[in-house]
Write a structure and sequence with these properties.
The chain is an alpha/beta fold. It has 7 helices and 11 strands. Helix content is 27%, strand content 23%. The strands form 2 sheets. The chain has a 9-stranded mixed beta sheet, with helices on both faces. It has a two-stranded antiparallel ribbon with strand order 5-8.
């Protein structure tokens, strides 16, 4: 434990972007990160003005690689494998980064990683929520309708087995704030998921962990074709998360992503 705390000593204060300064994004790459999701996010950041992308491995995170970042991004794949790759010291480094004011954006597996769960799943436990159906997570892949307050019509997002968020009261953590909800659904009875579990549950949630902001997407905004791809939402979410500060219970979709 002493070695772990010593390794975290330099992580107490994440870098904070000044007004007009580029948002520095630490993009996690490890076993358990899906190559397509990683590549799409990296390409988006590299072509988008106002963002600087640094790819971070588990070893680099354990060595203090988040120290110069504003927000950490964990993409789709396997949340369990991503967490196992970080190891306890890496998970502690991510938590300390967010607690001190850094942002966390989790997409699909990266959202699972941030939730509560048993030790065997290597969760970060940043957010007071779980997957509704526990270890039964296989639903399928589809473009699903999502609705949000402030948007006149539902819009589609690319869904690929992301979490079905359900609240889990957790000591020391405020409840998450739902920002958008699924209208449609997909499930696989053969894999233990069923009808009626998904509609009306959050597609996107926001939360506070210490002084940092956490934003979790169940669907993936950077994958999918025309009419499903929502890259502007990803960029807006990164800016919001990187800003730090309180997440009010009355936060709305438009406060993070605009009216669209």
């Amino acid at each position: 434990m002493k070695a772990t705390m010593a390794g975290l000593a330099g992580l107490a204060l994440p870098r904070r972007a000044s007004a007009g300064e580029a948002v520095r994004v630490g993009l996690y790459q490890s076993a358990g990160v899906h190559p397509a999701a990683f590549a799409a996010e990296k390409a988006l950041l590299e072509r988008s003005p106002g963002f600087v992308c640094t790819v971070l491995t588990p070893a680099q995170i354990r060595e203090g690689g988040l120290r110069k970042q504003d927000v950490a991004v964990f993409m789709g794949g396997s949340g369990t494998v991503q967490g196992r790759s970080l190891a306890d010291e890496g998970k502690a480094a991510v938590k300390e980064f967010v607690r001190a004011g850094g942002g966390y954006v989790g997409v699909c597996a990266g959202a699972y990683l941030a939730l509560q769960g048993e030790d065997e799943f290597h969760k970060l436990r940043l957010v007071a929520g779980r997957n509704l159906t526990g270890d039964a997570w296989q639903r399928g892949i589809a473009g699903l309708d999502v609705r949000a307050e402030g948007r006149a019509k539902p819009f589609k997002m690319f869904y690929a087995n992301g979490p079905i968020f359900t609240p889990t009261p957790t000591e020391g953590l405020a409840p998450y704030v739902p920002l958008a909800a699924f209208v449609g659904e997909i499930y696989s009875a053969a894999k233990g998921t069923g009808p009626g579990e998904m509609p009306g549950t959050p597609a996107i949630v926001a939360s506070t962990y210490g002084a940092g902001r956490v934003l979790l997407f169940s669907p993936n905004p950077v994958l999918g074709g025309a009419g499903v791809l929502q890259t502007a939402m990803m960029l807006d979410g990164l800016r919001w998360s990187a800003a730090g500060g309180a997440v009010p219970a009355e936060l709305r979709f438009v406060d993070v992503f605009g009216a669209g």
